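Morning!

As promised:
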Amino acid sequence: MGAGATMNVLATASIAVQRRLGRQRIRKFLLGSIPFIVMISAWHMNTVFEWLPPVFIPAIGEVWDAFFILQEDCVGFGAALMLDNSCLMSTHILSSLGRVILAAVIGLPFGIAFGILAGMSRPISKILEPIGIFANSISGIAWIPLAIVWFGVGWMTTLFIMLNTIFWLMFFNSMLGVRGVARVYEQSVLTMGGSRLDVILHVYLPGAMPSIISGMRMSMGFGWRALIAAEMIGGDSGLGFMIFSSAEEFKIEEVFLGVIIISIIFLATDHYLLKPLEKWTIHRWGLVWKPT
Amino acid sequence: MPAKLVVEGLTHHYPDEYTGESVHALEKINLEVQEGELVTVVGPSGCGKSTLLNILAGLLPYREGVASVDGIQISGPGSDRGVVFQEHAILPWRSVAKNIGHGLELKGMVKEEREARVQDFVELVGLSGFEDKYPHELSGGMKQRCAVARTLCADPVIMLMDEPFAAVDAQTRITLQEELNRIAIATKKTIMFITHAVDEAAFLGDRCFVFSARPGRLKAIVDINIARERRIWADMNADDEFVRARDEILRLVREEVSVAVEE
Ligand SMILES: Nc1ncnc2c1ncn2[C@@H]1O[C@H](COP(=O)(O)OP(=O)(O)OP(=O)(O)O)[C@@H](O)[C@H]1O
Ligand SMILES: [Mg+2]
C-alpha cells in the first residue's frame, strides 16, 4: 500500500471520528491533552536517557504492571467488592471512593441546606458563622491527630476529616450565593403568594447555583486532598494509605500508580458529574459567562 | 362604596446607615383607588413612585401613615396584589412558559390545567415560539412582556405595575396598552400603573395621579372621562377629552421637571 493510500485511509478515518464525536469536542479534548502528552513524553524520555535513576522515577511499563501485580491474588469480582485483602488494588480504590461518596452524600446536602438557611436568616448565620470560621481556621488535615485519638485508625477518622472539610466549604459558598441573589426575585415569588419554602426552592437554591457549584468543586478538591492525607496517617486502606506505605517500602512504581489513579478519578468526577451539572443549570440559565 | 385601596398620610424616609442622612422619598400621601379602577401615576424620576408601589405590595415596611386594602392594613406581601417590577423580575432559571405559569404553580394548580392558561398569555404578549427559551435568550422588550404576562397570569385582584411597557417598541406598546385596557374591561381589576409616558397615562387611566419632585407629594389628580370601550389609539387624537387630559398632565409634569432641574 502506497503512502497516498495510507493518507486516504487516515483522512477518511479522521472524518468519521469527527462526525461521530463532533469537531468542537475533539478540539477541546486535544487541547486539554497537550500538557499530559508533554508530561508523559518527558517521563518516557527520562527512562530512555536515564536522567534520573529508576528509584526516583520508574518506567511507565512498571507502573502499568504494578496495577495488575497488586490485583494478582484476587479471586473474583465478589471478593473485590467485599474489599478483600487479597484484592489490594481494587480495595484501595474502592475504600477511597467509598469514603468520598459517603462524605459527599452527607456533607454536600447538609452544607447546602445550612448554607441557604444561614444566607436567608440573620439569627442562623449569627449562630453558625463564628463556628464555621473557627472550623475553617484549623485546616481539615490539622484535625487528623485529634481524630485518631477519638476514632482510632480507619473509616471514622477519614470520614470525620472529609466531612469537616466538605461541610464548611459548602456551607460558606451556599451562604454567600444566597446573599448574592437579587431581592426582586424573592419579592416576585412572595407577591404571587409563595411561601418561605417556595422562595427557598424556586429562588435561593437556583439563584445560588453558581456559588454552590464552585463550592462543590472546592469541597471535592479539598475533600480529596484531606482524604489522602488522612489515609496516609490515620487510615488502614485507601489510595493515600497505599502511596504512603509503598513509599516506605521504596516501591516507587506503586506511589506513581496511586497518584495517577487519584487524578484520573478526580478528572472523571469533574467531567462526568460537575461539568454536566454546570451545563444544565448555570450555563443554560445564562447565570455565568461561557468563555469563547 | 368604600375604596379598595386607601393611603393616608403616608410618609417614607430611607435611612442611610453609612452617611447617617436619610432620603425623604414620600411626604404625606393621601389617595384612594376604587374597586375596578385603573389609576396611572406620573412624576419626575426619583420622586418615590416605586417606593409607594413597594409599600402597597407589602414589600417595604412603613412607619408613618396608613396603607390598606379593603380596610385591612397592609403588613406584608400577598397573592391578592400582583406586581410588575420596574427591573423585570423574571426568574433566569425558569423558561418563559414556566415563568408565566409560576403564580398558578404556586397556587397548586395542576399542570394540564395550567398549560392552557399559560398558552393564552404567551399569545397575548406575543411570545409564541419562545415558550421554552430562558430569559437570557430574550431581548429586553421580550423580557418585559414576559414579566407582564407572569403577573397577569397569576390573576391577582390588584395589579401594581411599575413602568411595565417602558422597554418595548412603540408598536408593541400600543398593542399592550390596548390589551391592558381590554383586560381592565373584562376582569374589572384594580390597577395602579406607573409610567413616564404622558400619553400612556392619559390613555390608560380613569384618573392620573401627578407627583411632585422629591419628596414625592400628590400634586394633582387629573380625571379622564373616556369610556373604556372607546379607548382605541386610532380614535384618540381626535378625542377632545384625551387631548385635554394629556395636555394637562404634560403641563403638570413639566412644572415639576423644571423644579427638579432648578434645584
Ligand atoms: N432601597 C433604597 N434605599 C435607599 N434609598 C432609596 C431606595 N430606593 C429608593 N431610594 C431613594 O428614594 C427616592 C425615590 O425612589 P423611587 O425608586 O421610589 O423613585 P421613582 O419615582 O420610582 O423613580 P423612577 O421614575 O426613576 O423609577 C430616590 O431618591 C431614591 O434615591
Ligand atoms: Mg421607579
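Chain A touches chain B at residues 182, 184-185, 187-194, 198, 202-203, 206-207, 209, 281, 284-287 (CB under 8 Å).

Hope this helps with the figure draft.
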